[in-house]
Structures are given as structure tokens and as C-alpha cells.
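G.,

No rush on this.
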Amino acid sequence: MPKYPILVLQMQRMGDLVLSFPLFLWLERTYPGHPIWVVAEESFFRPLMSVSPRVYYFPWEGVSVLRQKKYELILNLSIRPQAAELAGELQAEAKLGPVAAKGGATHILGNWQLYRASVVENNRHNLFHWADLNALDCVPLSSLAGTRWPKPRTLHKDSNRIGLFLGASEEAKRPAVSFWAGLCSELLKRGLRPVLFGGPMEKGMGQEVARLSKGPVLDMSGKLNLGELIAVGQSLQLFITPDTGPMHLAAWSGLKVLNLSMGNVNPWETGPYQNEHYVLRSTMSCALGCWTCSRDKLYCHTPFTPSRIAVAAKRMIIEDRSGLCKMNMPGLRLSLSTRNRDGVYSLKQLSGSISQAGDLLGRFWQQYFGAVFGLWDAEGACRVWDDFAGRQPDLAAKMAAHLPRLGKEFSRGLARSTSLDDSFWNSCPLILRQFTGFIHLFLQNGGYSRESWIKVLSYYEQLASILSRS
């Protein structure tokens, strides 16, 4: 008998679709024999089909075909209301992500899908990557941890072509024309040949960069489709790019990436996913968890100077890892994409200052949520908390001191079946908002039912048992 298909609704941008490619591979292994169907934007999936895992793509215009089937699993990774309505309408053995009840409210199914929704505008201490969060509700952690991604290509030492992708979806995420022109000049000084890439929107930008750089710069911006970009990428030693869809495509295709992580992005969530790609990020305290900048200019761009990037690029090409670790780049942190001891995405720092409090809090919340959702035991969370309390005793005391207030509010909510004030999650200290943001959304998602309140008290007790160790 044919097995029910698995349906994934991924109607976001191109980068989100490429970050779903690992999920498609894991689903194929976890549900052998079940065909995998994917609803996505045709303008994105069509040019990616040659490098995509083996799935069946459907444009939104073809969803009428989907109504004729029953599914083993529906996983909605989209934020569009239409996707939630479709997920609610179709029949399936299991559903995950936003699902709309017929004529009723939309609920998010799955702990990790709910967690991801809770870090919207609340991701300062989130260390879970989107590609992992796509899968953790329906794929065993052992599948993620056991996946071995090929190392990025290193071409013959005489190859000196460097790709620069100029664009990104928002101005805050991409360097200015003057930066790109300066970088081209610095690369040329070091015997490297810059090649400019971009979509149709960057065509004029590429022309201006080539003109200002005053050197032999090849401008391919606006001239290649995605398939051609992949093909040309085979001849590049390195791809320097902001956080954008072509960055994920480059990493997926084996091209070595240097991600200039600027503006309102978090590389822990959307950095290049495969191993041994480079991420350069500002060390400003507001750099992680930024959703929009209200300052008079983008100060996080300032430390990214063309000469620094060119020196780093040269060392990346010749595999001079020790030289990279010794680089002095004030205001910047250079990291390498890898996997932590639990098998999920991680950024291994190579150079730059260490933010002990922020780093440890991120590790703590990652261990805590992994423990309460059953990925691993609480030993890791206890170990990181002990380290944090030893290094940051004042912050640890502040977190512990706030717990009784949360306990009283949760107990009162259970006794009276009341809802929380809209400002609850972000009125708590920043160091606790990873927790309160999830709790607030969890209760809303459960309609403030008695069962939801009881579960919240369980989450609280698990947190309190760890924090009481200090």
C-alpha cells in the first residue's frame, strides 16, 4: 500500500527554503517510503530544483490537488494565514506549526515551533538555528547530530577569484557601495580577483562598485539566475556576503562562505548552516537580538573595514586558521560554523572579545529548553548555570531574586484562571525574557486553560530547581 505523503508548507523567502533542505533529508530518513511534498513560491523553488533534495514541489496555485490526499504529517513553516488555514483544513495523522481551526483561532502545534514563535523580537539569548528548529519536533536529535556535512571546497592555490554578493533584503543587512568598492581595492592589492554578484535590484549597485574600485573587477550583478550562480560558484575560492538567500545557497552547494553579519540578523539563527563557514559579527551589546535600529546610524557596520575583511579573506583562502585566530579586529568577532556536543548548530569563536554574560546566558537557555522539551537531561543546564553564577554572581542573584514573583503570578493564574497582562513577558528583566516570552505565548496558545497553567508551573519548578543551586 502507498504510504501517506508528508506535506511541508514553506512559503517564505528563498533563504528559508534553502534552510529547509536539511529538514527534507531528515524527513526522508525518519519516514522512509513517505513521499515529501512541499508548497513553496514557484519563483524560488523552480531555479533550486537541480540542487534540492528529492521532494515534490507545488506552487500555491496548485493547492487544490493537495485537498485530495490524507497526510502522515503536515509541517507548516509559514507565517501566512492562508497556510495555517490550509493546514487546518487538510487531514493528517499529525500536524505541526500554525494550524487554524475551522472558523476559529490559530494554534501553534509542537514545542519547538512554539518556541520559535516566542523568540520573535525576543531572541537576544536564543542559540537555536532555524534549520534545527524546523526539524526538532518531528526528527530525532540523533539524526541531526549524526549528519556529516561535506567540508566547503578549497580550490587549487593558484585560483584567486573571490565572489562578493552585494545585496540583502533590507538596507541594514548589507554594506554600502563605498565599503564594497574599498574591499575590491584591498583584495586586488593582495592578488585576489573580485567578482560581483547580485540580483536585478543590485545591477546599478554593481556598476557603481566596479567604477569606484578602479581596477579589474568583474561585474556579474543582475546577469545570472540562481542555477548559473551555483555553476559560477564552483570557480570561486570564497563567497563574501551579508545574510541573504544566496548565502545559504552558496553554503549548501559547497562554496566557502564569509558571512558579514550586519544589522537586524542573528547568525545563531540564520548563519550559514553547514560546517566550517565563517561569520563576522559586531561585538556591540545590541548586535544580537536586534529587530530594528532606532539610533541615528548603523553603528554595528562601523567595525567592518575593507582592509580587515581583505586580510581575513586571504587567510581563509590559504587555510591559515591560526592566523585568523590571531587577528586583532576591535569591535568584531570571527566565528566558525560547527556543531556543539549535543549535535545542534553552534558558532565556535576564533577571534574577538568574549561577552561572558551573554554567551553563558545563551548556552544556559539552550540547555534549559532542550531539557524541558526532552532533547537531553538537565545536567547541561545545571553545569552552565554553575559556571554563570561563578562568573556573574550579581546577574545570577538578580535572576534568582525574580523567581518568587514569577511563582506567585503563576500560582495566582492557576487558582483564578486569569490571563497575563500583555506586558508580562517584556516587563521582566532581560536575562529572564527567553523564559517569560515562551511562557506568555504558551499560555496564550493554550487559551489560559487549567492544563496550560499546570504545565507552566512545571516549567517554572524545573527552572527554580536549577537556579536554586547558586
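When you get to it, here's the other one too:
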Amino acid sequence: MSSSPQRRLHLNAFLMAIGHHEAAWRLPESDPNANLDIKHYISLAQTAERGKFDSVFLADSPVLFSNPERRPSGKLEPTIILTAISAATEKIGLIATASTSYNEPYNLARRFASLDFVSSGRAGWNIVTTAGADAAQNFGLDDTPAHRSRYERAAEFVEVSTKLWDSWEDDAIVADKDVAIHADSAKVHVIEHEGRFFKVRGPLNVPRSPQGYPLLVQAGSSEDGKDFAARYSEAIFTAQPTLDEGKAFYADVKDRVAAVGRDPEQVLILPGIVPVIADTEEEARELEAELERLISPEYARKQLAQRFNLEPEQLPLDEELPDDLPSEDEIEGAKSRYTLIVDLARREKLTVRQLIGRLGGGRGHRTFAGTPLQVADTIEHWFRNGAADGFNIMPAVLPSGLEKFVDSVVPILQERGLFRTDYTETTLRGHYGLPRPANQFAVEKDGLRPREYLSTSRG
């Protein structure tokens, strides 16, 4: 009896402009305008592909996310960046965030189907709902819809999108020059969706793409977010600062996936890790300390106060968080991240200044300063102990942090048999070991192949 193949890690490179640490742009080595330079993103993706990463990922938000006075804040639209990257790479997956709160299914389904064609099957969609009055006011609303309502809209949005991606059967295009028929119209479907949030006739004006439809990714960790992930997601990006929290989240989500009748092995969980890597632990900690020194504490305190629905003066820098913070139920946006931050501060008895330093590197994700061996050991420990199927690698500084990970950590993981030494698949779904989805509209026409059906049905 043959043994089953060894389980392998999945690695995604989360590309955040100059780096995930909010002060990375102030380092002497950093280009403060790299966030607007397509060559920068192409080079990062090529580095990740050299390291045989499964994918690269770009976050996004339909609002100016931070004070442009304090840090680079401009964001290019991610599917445009990934389209450029697709022409400069061959294998690596390309994942972009797009909000279900401020898009329409038809346009977004078309955009991702197009990216999947352009990249020969490497597209992925990170599905998010968007909170905050600032974003709402960019779209003619006074305030954000309620948390539950946003997830209900997101669920219907995904259902409409998958119907549109399936509106062309895989063999709809026959391109028969002899009978002057390019596509079998019986295999191009009007979806006639009419629901609470959307009314969409279809079909999509893009045929079914190489992957069937893009890999579906999700990053919410609230109760609604986990229920949504269990039903729709194929990969989950999550922030889990400790091993015990990571194990609990992993087990919880896998149980929810099984409860809705899906295979837990086909829903991959990738916690974020923000590695600060150097040849010695002392050098890594020096770099981490330098980054913390470059944080602007007053600006960071203002950002933290906004998350807590407080005024900055209510968060003295050298005191712990006040006891009377709002409960999670009183917070409409990013509920799980709010709880994570409060729990971190309470558990480690951090002052506001110390909490700002911890959040500056990864916004609640696990941060780790150490040698390549220590980083590899941490990744393996989480992977082997039921906390992760892989990791969302979030370098504190770019491009140097990603280069260091690829050149010094990846070889250790490869030597241990935990990570691929070369690509064996060509699509993003292939890298993640996930199947191409069946088409919900596909029906066999009297047992005949498309050419035979056309000739009998059209005389």
C-alpha cells in the first residue's frame, strides 16, 4: 500500500508597497514613492516567483486609508497592477482584493475573468466587505451598512459572480468555420438572478476562464466572517498572534467547513507573519527597534483612537488601555481585528505606546524578529501543530525583506521537504492543490459532443 504524499506548505507574498511596517518608508534604503511604481511591484512578484511562492496578493480599499501627510497612501488599482505582473511572470498566482460593498457583480466578474485569461489561469479574488463612513461617503451613502447586512450582500454577490462565470459552459466555443458557428448558443446561459441585493440577467460577456473561476479568498475572522469563509472561501488569510489562537481558529473554521458539507482539506488557512530577518538575532532585533523608533506616536495614537471610537486624549501614551472600551458588538468595522488588538494589549499589559509599536509592524498579525533558521522553525511549528496550511508572508520592509526570505528561509523549508523546489502546476488552483470547479449550468445534450449537437440542431 503506497503512502500518501507529504503535506506541503503554501506561501503567499502579501505585497504592501514599501513594506508592512508603517515606518518602513523612512529607512535610508527605502524608496518613498515605490507605492506608485509598477516596476517595483513587478520586481517583487519576480522575486516571489523565484522563491516558488504559490501567489502574490495586493490589498485594497475604496478610500484613502491613512493620512497622506504621515506615510505613502496612494494605491494603484490592484487588478491593473496584477495584469502588468502577469506579463512579466509565468507561474505565480495573482490575488487582488475587491469589495462586495462598493462594486457590482457583473463588472467585477468580468474584471477577474479577464485577469484569469490574461494570466493563463492565475487569478484570485480576496473577497472583502468594507466598513467605515469615509468609504460609504465616496459612494453616495452617509454611513456604512450594518455588519450582518454587509455579509449578506457579500454572499449574494459571490453567488451571482459564480453564476456569471458559469454562464458559458466550458465547451461553448466551437469555432467551426465550415458551418459558420463560433459558439453553441445553447451552452451560453442567461442566469436571470433576482435577489435581495441584485438583479442580474447575464450571461457574462467573457467566456468561462481557464480556472473556471478565480480562486476565492477571504480574510474576515469575525463570527459572520468565519461562517462566510466556511461556505464560500477556498483560502483564508487571517491574523493570529499566538499558536494557541491559531490552532483554535484553524479547528473552528475547519469544523464549520465540514458542517456545511464541504471538504475541510480544500479550504486552506494561511495566517499572516511579519518576519524581520537578519543573519543574527541581535541584528534582527536592532532593525525591529529602528523601525519602532521611526513610528510617529501621535499619528498612530489617532489611528488607534479611531478604531476604538475614542478621542486621542482618551489614550495616554504611557498608560494601558482604559477599562471601558466599547464591546465588539458596538464596533461595525473589522470586528475580529478590534478584538485581537484589545486581547493583545490586555494579555501582555501593554501601554498605548508599546501597543502602537507592536501594531506598527503587522496591525495585529504575528511579528517575529530572528534568524532565517528561527523563522523557518516558527513556520514549521505552526504548520505541524494544527495552526496553518501555509502562511501569508508580510515582510516588514520591501524589497529587502522579501529577498531575505526567499534567499535564506525558503531553502531551509525546501531542505526539510516542506515546500516545493519547483512549480509542478501552471494555475493558481493547481498551486494550492484545489480542483477546477464544475459548471453549475453544464448539461449533456443527448449524449452528443458540441460539434455533433450543432450539426443536428442547426441542420
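The two ends are 54 Å apart (CA to CA). The longest helix spans residues 147-165.

Enjoy the weekend,
O.
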